[in-house]
Write a structure and sequence with these properties.
mainly alpha, 164 residues, 4 helices
């Protein structure tokens, strides 16, 4: 079980770095769009708004992961039954939250496509739609990877025999 715990949290930490990097890149693109007075400069708005959320999430996960791994490793060693119960409960909440996140991201994708499709002559609508499309698609993709990683970890927790 130690291996599964370490693999899961290593993936979380790696993905948090991706969120930070993409957030910084999105802000850079947003600044460029705004400074060059690009016709789709309003693409900067969703790029920055979502980038700030990505960076907060990325930083939070990165900052807490090592301590969380340490705490869970000690709990697994000293109180394996409590570890299993506590982690299964936490991960079930995480997995439920992924369903909510995916729904929101898909709604944002549909909204972005609708802006682009139904208001193609509006640079503002197309710009906002493009920014939202890029950010929602990227966030959805990363959440799908995280969900798969979480499901594998949850399955390992369920099959873990704490009495061994």
């Amino acid at each position: 079980m130690t291996k599964e715990l370490l693999v899961y949290f290593a993936g979380e930490k790696q993905e948090s770095i991706l969120f930070l990097a993409v957030g910084l890149l999105a802000i850079g693109v947003a600044v460029w769009l705004w400074m060059t007075d690009h016709r789709f400069r309003l693409m900067a708005v969703p790029l920055v708004v979502v980038a700030l959320m990505q960076m907060v999430v990325g930083f939070t996960i990165y900052a807490r992961t090592d301590a969380q791994v340490q705490s869970l490793s000690v709990l697994q060693k000293n109180e394996p039954v409590q570890f299993q119960v506590q982690e299964i409960d936490r991960m079930q909440t995480v997995m439920t939250n992924f369903k909510i996140y995916k729904t929101i991201e898909i709604v944002l994708l549909v909204f972005a496509l609708a802006l682009i499709a139904f208001l193609p002559k509006s640079d503002a609508a197309v710009g906002i739609g493009l920014g939202l499309l890029v950010q929602a698609a990227f966030t959805l993709a990363l959440d799908l990877f995280a969900e798969a990683r979480g499901e594998a970890y949850l399955n390992a927790l369920r099959s873990f025999n704490p009495l061994n």
